[in-house]
Design goal:
582 residues; alpha+beta; 3 domains; seven-stranded mixed sheet; 15 helices
């Protein structure tokens, strides 16, 4: 890997970032077997799957997907499962919580679509058969309330690096030099609020995207199509918004977490490759070389196949590699190439793969992005007097909550029964730090983005230690976190198969990767400690409206020690913990 085969910690750390996500979408219809060496969880430690759903699975137009499946006679579901009539219905009308959605990772965004409620309803039978761009035989039945625009065919690619989070936010905000260029979700200035907690001054950032648009599908006039039952269920019982009232704050946080702050009104199709890379910048030599480091780490993918391989031998590159994190996704075009690129954007032959994929982008259109409307705009446009007066409260709540993110500190314990293994954070707004009450074991590298353990290479296989325990803390601004676990195939002989597990102590859930055929297992939307802290006020903000069962360590660990995570004066200027124990 990276120009040769090596067992160095640096290259193993970089290898840990080469991942792929499998999307269940809304409801799995027509499940397709896969061969990727990865498995996927979606917030449920009991429900792993190694099948990938079709890109746009099931329909639901009036209530929740669960109710739709339960009442399958409302539509010929068997026909739907075999030949999706209108795939955009898996997204249009559903919500995204823009206080926690990753704006630059399409696969993560699709996974974060909230499926509890659909806010539009319309008649599928009043539809026109239309040929999908790039296909000679694939048709969609497009409802008459939907716009269908194929006059958007264009290819574009961009790559930029930024010294720190402030520079990144300035460029990406509405009116900035890169506004709308990299985000997979658009919808006006209100969408940009999520950027404020996503980028941090302790990191340098690189953004790359290559995109071919071929189709836009949008709802033409949502005002008359609002699902009044869904809206009334969610909105009518809300109290007036009062930032000083804890129940009011929890109520609106709960609304956004279950129904979304913004509702999808348009889906774009085509082909898209997105890459977001970040690394700690406290070392000035790393900050100055960040762009060339990214070029080398991804074998020239972002620079037309050109890079200086000698950079990899520099000391600053080794430091860069220890903290480098990334999210990547590739969809549309040749599906085999898209999977290979998305799974390994730093492969030895990535540039050749990219050029071949680039020549196929007119084939097999897939979702490339979403356009949204704020929830309060839908509320305002309704004629239902039971809730339409609440639009201003919802807007005020969003602006306050987005600018005063509740901070979650979650005590965790990782146990490794393998020669090597680690955890990678996949949420850019999250950090890891050592637990000050528990020393970091020998052989552990712990940065703000990842944890990596490797046993001493002189240790014989039969002498490998069992249950290597690493206690740490996750800090993040969302009620859920994404991470990946990986390990070597070799483990202690008395421990069975090699395994790595993480216990998020406050929720009390354990997530494990014990399959030797799985390179890295991703855990998506995993619940963290619900006892969040409003850093602006220092008050506890439990994000559940309904009180949760008492957790044995939740109260004592509701906030981390100050020496671990000092409260930043400006959001995004968190400390930069780096612990290396050898």
């Amino acid at each position: 890997m990276f120009g040769g085969h090596s067992n160095s910690k640096v290259e193993l750390l970089l290898h840990s970032m080469l991942t792929i996500r499998l999307l269940p979408g809304v409801v799995a219809a027509a499940l397709v077997p896969i061969s990727f060496n990865v498995s996927y969880y979606n917030g449920n430690p009991q429900a792993a799957t190694t099948t990938a759903a079709a890109d746009s699975p099931a329909l639901n137009l009036t209530t929740s997907p669960q109710d739709f499946i339960a009442n399958a006679t409302a539509y010929n579901f068997s026909k739907l499962a075999g030949n999706l009539d209108f795939p955009p219905a898996s997204y249009i009308g559903f919500g995204l919580d823009m206080t926690s959605t990753m704006l630059f990772d399409l696969e993560s965004t699709k996974e974060h679509v909230l499926t509890a409620w659909c806010f539009f309803e319309y008649d599928l039978q009043r539809a026109e058969k239309k040929l999908l761009p790039g296909s000679n035989s694939q048709y969609w039945m497009v409802p008459d309330v939907m716009g269908w625009n194929t006059d958007v065919s264009q290819y574009d690619s961009n790559y930029e690096t930024y010294m720190n989070g402030s520079a990144t936010k300035e460029a990406l905000r509405a009116g900035g030099s890169a506004s709308g260029r990299y985000e997979v979700v658009t919808g006006g200035a209100s969408v940009d609020v999520g950027i404020q907690t996503m980028f941090h001054d302790q990191y340098s950032y690189a953004l790359f995207e290559a995109q071919q648009q071929s189709l836009q599908v949008r709802i033409l006039s949502y005002g008359t199509l609002i699902n009044e039952d869904s809206m009334e269920n969610q909105i009518a019982s809300l109290p007036p918004f009062n930032k000083g009232d804890k129940f009011s704050l929890r109520s609106y946080r709960s609304l956004f977490e279950t129904s979304g702050t913004h509702i999808i009104t348009e889906v774009s199709y085509g082909a898209r490759l997105s890459l977001c890379v970040w690394a700690e910048n406290k070392d000035s030599s790393v900050a100055e070389s960040f762009s060339s480091d990214v070029n080398v780490a991804f074998n020239g993918l972002v620079t037309n196949g050109k890079f200086d391989a000698h950079v990899q031998a520099e000391k600053q590159y080794q430091t860069f590699a220890k903290s480098m994190a990334k999210t990547s996704s590739c969809s549309g075009g040749n599906s085999t190439l898209a999977a290979a690129i998305g799974n390994n954007p730093a492969g030895e032959h990535i540039w050749e793969q990219f050029l071949e994929w680039q020549s196929s982008v007119d084939e097999n259109p897939a979702v490339t992005g979403f356009t949204t409307q704020p929830l309060w705009n839908l509320v305002k446009s309704s004629n239902n007097s039971k809730y339409n007066h609440m639009w201003a409260d919802i807007e005020d709540a969003y602006e306050y909550i987005a600018s005063h993110p509740a901070t979650h500190f979650t005590n965790c314990r990782m146990i490794v029964n393998a020669r090597s293994g680690g955890l990678d954070l996949l949420s850019p707004e999250a950090f890891v730090a050592p637990d000050p009450a528990s020393p970091v074991p020998n052989g552990v590298i712990l940065t703000s983005t990842k944890i990596y353990y490797e046993a001493n290479p002189d240790i014989l296989p039969q002498d490998l230690p069992t249950d290597v325990t690493i206690d740490f803390i996750i800090k993040n601004y969302s009620p859920t976190v994404d991470f990946g676990l990986y390990h070597s195939e070799e483990g202690p002989p008395n421990a069975g198969n090699a395994e790595i597990s993480v216990n998020l102590l406050q929720p009390g859930n354990v997530y494990a990767n014990s399959d030797p055929s799985v390179d890295i297992k991703q855990f998506i939307r995993i619940p963290v400690n619900p006892n969040a802290i409003d850093e602006m006020s220092g008050e506890n903000q439990n994000t559940s409206v309904t009180p949760t069962a008492t957790q044995s360590v939740s109260e004592q660990n509701a906030s981390a020690p100050a020496e671990t995570f000092p409260s930043p004066k400006i959001l995004g200027q968190e400390p930069n913990p780096l612990v290396v124990s050898s």
